[in-house]
Design goal:
Length: 371
C-alpha cells in the first residue's frame, strides 16, 4: 500500500490533482447531485433508503472525526493523516442529501404554496459549494447538519411507519433535535477546539431557531407533504374507468408550453361536467385521505372562493401513483383551480384552468390517454 502511495505522489495524476485542488469542492458538489439525479427514483425504494441512510450516517461520522483533528489523542493515527480529506467528504454527503431533497421535493412542490421552503432547499444546495472554506465554523457545521437531519427524518419515518400525519412530523423533529444535540455534546467533550469555539447558549439558540423555523413552515402549510407527490393533474372533458384503467379525454396545449399537459382554457358545454384527474404517488402500503378543493376566483371580491371539497383515500405502492378524479356540473365561467391537499391541508399540487361556457363550445385538440 505504501509503495502505491509513493508511486501515486510521483505521478502526473497527483501533480494534476494538486494543481487544480481548488476546484475539488465544486467537483464533489456536482458529483453528488449528478449521482443522485441518475440513481434516485422512488422514495420508498430499498436502494434510495439505503443510499440516504448511508449519506446521513457517513455525514455524522465525518463531522465527528473532523472535529477530532488536532487532538493529541489522535497523533499519527488515521484521523490526523487523512483529516484534510474530511471537508470534502462532508461536502459530498451534504451535497448528496440536499440534492436528494431538491429532487424529491420538486416532484411534490406547488410553487404557489411552498416556494419559500423550496427556495431554502435550493439555497442550501448551492451554499454547499462554498462550505469547505468555512467548514471549521462549528455553528455552520451543526446548523447545516441539523437541517438535513430534520428533513431526512420527516420523510423517512412516514416511509417506515406507513403513516403520515402531524404527530409523526413532530416526532421527526424531536428525534432530529435529540440526535443533533447528542452529537454536539459528544464532540464538545472530545474536542478541545470545540470547547474553545462553541458558546453553549449561542449554539442552543441557533439549533432551536432552526427547529422553530421548520415547524413554523410546516404549520403555515409551506412544506410539501413528501413522501407524497402529485404525479399527474389534468382538467378533462370525460373520464371512464374500465376495469383497472382510466381513459381520460382532455385538450392538449400548444407544443411550446411543455410544462403543461392540458390546455388552460376549458370550453365547457352547458350540459357537460368538468373533470379533474390526478395521480398521487405514495410509498407502499401508506394510506392517506386526500381532497380536491375546487376554487373559483370572484372578481367582485378579488379573492378565491372555495366551492367544494371532495375527498377520497389513496393507497401507496403504484409506480405511477394512485389514480382518482372528481367532477362538477354546476360551475361558473372564469378562473378555477383545484388544490390537491392532505387532511392537514398540506398542498400536493394545483390544477388551474379557465372555464368558458358556451352551448356549442368545442375543444379542438382532444386526445384520450389511458392511465
Amino acid at each position: 500500500m505504501r509503495k502505491i502511495l509513493i508511486k501515486y505522489k510521483k505521478s502526473k495524476l497527483h501533480y494534476f490533482v494538486e494543481k487544480h485542488q481548488k476546484y475539488a469542492p465544486i467537483l464533489f458538489f456536482i458529483a453528488g447531485f449528478t449521482w443522485d439525479s441518475l440513481t434516485l427514483g422512488r422514495i420508498d425504494r430499498l436502494y434510495d433508503i439505503v443510499i440516504l441512510c448511508t449519506y446521513m450516517t457517513l455525514l455524522t461520522i465525518s463531522i465527528y472525526l473532523y472535529n477530532l483533528v488536532g487532538s493529541e489523542k489522535w497523533d499519527n493515527k488515521f484521523v490526523q493523516k487523512y483529516g484534510h480529506y474530511l471537508p470534502l467528504a462532508i461536502q459530498f454527503f451534504l451535497g448528496g442529501l440536499s440534492s436528494a431533497y431538491v429532487i424529491y421535493f420538486s416532484r411534490s412542490v406547488s410553487l404557489s404554496k411552498t416556494a419559500t421552503f423550496f427556495f431554502i432547499l435550493i439555497l442550501l444546495f448551492i451554499a454547499n459549494e462554498f462550505l469547505r472554506k468555512r467548514i471549521s465554523n462549528k455553528y455552520l457545521q451543526f446548523g447545516f447538519y441539523f437541517f438535513v437531519n430534520f428533513i431526512f427524518l420527516s420523510f423517512f419515518l412516514p416511509v417506515i411507519l406507513k403513516k403520515m400525519n402531524t404527530v409523526i412530523f413532530l416526532v421527526s423533529g424531536v428525534l432530529s433535535l435529540i440526535s443533533t444535540l447528542c452529537l454536539i455534546i459528544l464532540i464538545y467533550k472530545s474536542s478541545i477546539s470545540a470547547q474553545t469555539e462553541i458558546v453553549k447558549w449561542k449554539m442552543l439558540s441557533m439549533i432551536m431557531s432552526i427547529y422553530i423555523l421548520i415547524n413554523s413552515l410546516y404549520f403555515l402549510k409551506l412544506i410539501p407533504p413528501v413522501p407524497l407527490a402529485l404525479d399527474q393533474g389534468l382538467v378533462a372533458y370525460n373520464i371512464q374507468k374500465i376495469g383497472a384503467t382510466y381513459k381520460v379525454t382532455y385538450e392538449v396545449d400548444k407544443w411550446y408550453l411543455f410544462w403543461r399537459d392540458h390546455k388552460a382554457d376549458f370550453n365547457k358545454q352547458t350540459n357537460k361536467p368538468v373533470y379533474v384527474f390526478t395521480s398521487v404517488f405514495a410509498p407502499t402500503d401508506l394510506k392517506k385521505k386526500i381532497y380536491h378543493r375546487w376554487k373559483w376566483f370572484d372578481e367582485n371580491l378579488d379573492d378565491w372562493q372555495t366551492v367544494d371539497k371532495i375527498g377520497y383515500e389513496i393507497v401507496g405502492g403504484r409506480d405511477n401513483g394512485f389514480r382518482g378524479f372528481t367532477y362538477k356540473n354546476n360551475v361558473r365561467a372564469g378562473e378555477w383551480k383545484v388544490e390537491v391537499i392532505t387532511e392537514e391541508e398540506l398542498v400536493l399540487g394545483v390544477v388551474d384552468f379557465n372555464i368558458n361556457i358556451h352551448s356549442n363550445a368545442k375543444a379542438e385538440k382532444l386526445i384520450t390517454r389511458t392511465f
